Amino acid sequence: MTIPTFNAVGFCAHYSKQGDWAFDLALQISQLHELQLNVFHFLKDPYDPNKSWPTHLSHEQLEKIAIAEEKKLRLYYDHRAGEYLNVGFRLCYDDSWSELHRCLMIREFQLLIVGYTTHGATFTGKPIVKFADDFISPVILVGPENPKQYYMNSRAALLSYKLGISTENRTKSEKFEV
Questions:
Q1: Domains in the chain, number
Q2: Is the pLDDT of residue 165 over 70?
Q3: Mean pLDDT, residues 56-83 taken together
Q4: Chain-centre distance of CA 132, in angstroms?
Q5: Dihedral of CA 90/34/137/126: which sign?
Q6: Which residues, 6 or more positions from 127, have their beta carbon under 8 angstroms from its beta carbon?
Q7: How distant, in Å, are the alpha carbons of 57, 60, 98 from that of 65?
Q8: Confidence of residue 88 (pLDDT cuts 50, 70, 90)
Q9: Residue 144 reports pLDDT greater than 70
Q10: Pairing of strands 126-127, 8-12
Q11: I need a surface site. Which of 56, 69, 129, 177 has the fewest CB within 10 A?
Q12: Is residue 63 part of a domain?
């Protein structure tokens, strides 16, 4: 059974156990519904707004960093995807909401899955739960305490049954620090 109007799941890469949990859910949904899984990786960490980023890099220096990061990304997630070949990778230079919105508008995903690293985490400069609630597509946060703990924005909650996601462990936002 496929999901009408869905052709891709988006996953925001994060090298953490919560990021791995989120990837596993994204992969599971992609496999179950035969959807493209697009892995987005940001050169500037969207989880850490205070992380400094060199501002005076030459184009060649930036490209060298981007190539190394993309290689790391592909090796890590190719291994985790196993035999599933319908996986794409996108290296994003911008850490903001606008980059994800642009990818949504060109139909690189219709469902976004993000690791919820810790209570009170931020994503693209705002509390992660607020990011999920404000984003215009369905968003599922996975974690922070276990791989079956989900926070779904209202658009994702409406699709949870079709996606094959149990709402048994669904967490309400008031349990998270916002």
A1: 1
A2: yes
A3: 92
A4: 11
A5: negative
A6: 120, 121, 177, 178
A7: 10, 9, 22
A8: very high
A9: yes
A10: unpaired
A11: 56
A12: no
| Tokens at 65, concatenated | 């960093």
Tokens describing residue 77 = 């997630």
5 in a structural domain = yes
Percent residues over pLDDT 70 in the chain: 85
Q: Which two tokens stand for residue 60?
A: 């060649």
- Whether 55 is in a domain gets the answer no
pLDDT tier at 131, thresholds 50, 70, 90? very high
Give yes or no for residue 174 having a pLDDT over 60.
Answer: no
Q: Can you list the alpha helix ranges (DSSP code H) found in the chain?
A: 17-33, 59-81, 97-105, 128-134, 154-163
Considering only CA atoms, which of 149, 99, 153 is closest in space to residue 129? 153
* Angle formed at CA 72 by CA 98 and CA 57, multiple of 5 degrees: 60
Amino acid found at 143: G
| pTM, two decimal places | 0.88
Q: Which domain holds residue 35?
A: 1-11+29-48+70-116+133-143
Is residue 162 included in any domain, yes or no?
no
Residue type, 82: G
- Is residue 73 within 8 A of residue 2, CB to CB? The reply is no
